[in-house]
Amino acid sequence: MADLVESLQSRLSGSLPGAEAQYSMAPDHRPGPEANHAPPADSKKAAVLLLFYPREDTLHIPMMLRPANSGPHSRQISFPGGAHEPDDSDMRETALRESHEELNILPGQVQILGQLTPVYVAPSRFHVDPFVGYSQTRPDFVAEPSEVERVLEIPVQHLRENSTRQHEMREIRGRNVRVPYFAF
User: Which H/E stretch holds residue 144?
Assistant: First the structure.
């Protein structure tokens, strides 16, 4: 696992693929102007945590199913994270605080390895800073029921398999749209 940590830190310190990589897994209607412009000045700040940890000798990441009626991301799968608060010293602290509040991931258990390219999420008007972290042990997940319906522990290897990347057609705002997803 030490090799993984060093490899991730090294890759995160170099240039990142950015919006192009992010939009490769966005619905067809999302690219265009959103992919090339800065978020509006009045966008809200948020941070998420992409946490790697060992479970049964395999690397996993936690994601969560948001509960129904939880705003613009109701019933969506997400990384732990949320809105920046005035008491947060920086966005890194926001990611760690929110991950603790939502899933009981202890901040002292997380080694932050770096950051991914920020992304603007138009439906909720959040400019999101994604952080990558590593925990030497599996966190003792406790879901906050008002924010998390279910914790999903996803094997990283599964996400790397080509057959996992799929798409389907959905009707969104009266248009048929190709929507990519990771089958899990």
Answer: none
Is 61 within 8 Å of 184 (Cβ atoms)?
A: no
> Measuring CA to CA, which residue among 2, 106, 128, 12 is closest to residue 54?
2
48: which 2 tokens? Answer: 């998420």
Gap between the Cα atoms of 26 and 40, Å rounded: 20
> Tokens 């398999």 sit at which residue?
161
Tokens of 18: 């950015």
pLDDT tens sequence across 22-62: 877 878 765 544 545 568 888 999 999 999 999 998 999 99
Question: What pTM was computed for the model?
Answer: 0.89
Q: Measured on CA atoms in the order 84, 88, 89, 90, is the torsion positive or negative? A: negative
Of 145, 149, 142, nearest in space to 104 by CA:
142
Note whether 130 and 79 are within 8 A (CB). yes
